[in-house]
UniProtKB/TrEMBL annotation:
InterPro entries tied to this protein: YpzH
Pfam families to which the protein is assigned, alphabetical: YIEGIA_cap
Domain of life: Bacteria
Protein name: Uncharacterized protein
Amino acid sequence: MGLTEYTLAVITTDKNMKFGGGCPIFYAEDDKDLQHKAMLMAKSVGGMVHDMTNGTLIVVKH
């Protein structure tokens, strides 16, 4: 039995977010930048993007 699902990154427009639960936080300037950064990260690590609302996305490996 092994670890199969985990969060790889948090991408947000909220500059006040300081804690990502052990994964890196990337800050985006606006919604377009948010979507672009999340898509690039997900493609590079084979992950999926999930919307956490309020300008925050996470990249998760399933």
